[in-house]
Write a sequence for this structure.
């Protein structure tokens, strides 16, 4: 026997939670939350993704090496998105070069 | 040793190590997939930041209800995939084949709905590069939104097609009795891939379908 065996009952609960969160995010999108709208949508999506990663993908029961591999993906994603956005955010700070 | 001899490759010390190596290898691959889709999400973020209003308006052309129901179908396929891994871990061959078939079926339903949605966009002249007609009041930036829509959901659908192909092979091997409690790494690793594709959709659904629902 290798690997952790998760009970099917827990899988069903996770699935139910995922369906509820899908309904919540669909319902919340009907309200105008302003700039918070995208934050709420992404938080709910992150919660759903966490449930899938931790339970369906067994990371909760996996060794630290798996946590590091999964975490490294998030860190690099953060670098890519973060540095790209700081670039676009700060571009208006200096006038665009002209005459060439 | 005799019962595990067939399942254990000679370069591993034991089944536990073999299982850990397979899982870790798949996670490293999935990290590269996060980078791949991450580029698309980054581009989406940059353009949505520049044209927030147009993205929200263009998003209203997508059917929220169809998107939500298709999300449920994909989540259900992840459930049957998780149950397939459980069936493999507990050496239940018939249940394993059944859950794998259910996963293939649900994945195919998702792709069928996706094809219906693509056709609907084509009928409404909303496919950039192929047939895009501006409706009255539509901004030029609508095309950028639909480019992201087709590229992101298209890449996701391509991953689903690959996943269904993998599941077909795994189902055949499972039917032949290749997997059991001591060796089910291919089932587990294919499951990791399937759940990853599910996660991509978990982010695509609110970012593409829901951003104009409040308008």
């Amino acid at each position: 026997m290798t690997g952790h065996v998760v009970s099917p009952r827990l899988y069903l609960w996770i699935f139910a939670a995922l369906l509820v969160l899908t309904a919540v995010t669909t319902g919340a999108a009907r309200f105008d939350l302003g700039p918070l709208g995208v934050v709420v949508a992404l938080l709910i999506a992150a919660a759903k993704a966490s449930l899938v990663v931790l339970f369906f993908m067994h990371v909760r029961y996996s060794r630290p090496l798996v946590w590091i591999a999964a975490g490294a993906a998030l860190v690099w994603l953060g670098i890519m998105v973060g540095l790209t956005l700081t670039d676009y955010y700060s571009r208006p700070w200096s006038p665009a070069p002209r005459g060439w | 040793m005799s019962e595990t001899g067939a399942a254990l490759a000679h370069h591993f010390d034991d089944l536990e190590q073999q299982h850990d190596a397979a899982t870790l290898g798949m996670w490293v691959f999935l990290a590269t997939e996060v980078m791949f889709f991450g580029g698309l999400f980054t581009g989406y973020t940059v353009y949505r930041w520049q044209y927030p209003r147009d993205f929200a308006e263009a998003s209203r052309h997508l059917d929220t209800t169809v998107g939500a129901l298709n999300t449920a179908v994909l989540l259900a396929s992840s459930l049957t995939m998780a149950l397939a891994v459980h069936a493999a871990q507990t050496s239940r061959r018939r249940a394993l084949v059944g859950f794998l078939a259910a996963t293939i079926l649900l994945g195919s339903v998702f792709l069928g709905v996706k094809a219906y949605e693509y056709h609907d966009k084509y009928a409404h002249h909303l496919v950039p590069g192929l047939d895009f007609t501006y409706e009255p009041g539509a901004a030029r930036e609508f095309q950028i939104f639909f480019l992201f829509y087709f590229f992101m959901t298209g890449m996701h659908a391509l991953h689903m097609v690959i996943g269904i192909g993998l599941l077909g092979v795994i189902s055949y091997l499972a039917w032949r009795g290749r997997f059991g409690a001591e060796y089910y790494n291919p089932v587990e690793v294919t499951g990791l891939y399937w759940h990853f594709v599910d996660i991509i959709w978990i982010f695509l659904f609110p970012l593409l379908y829901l951003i104009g629902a409040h308008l």
Notes: The mean pLDDT of chain B is 93. The domain at 28-209 of chain B is CATH 1.20.120.80 (Four Helix Bundle (Hemerythrin (Met), subunit A)).
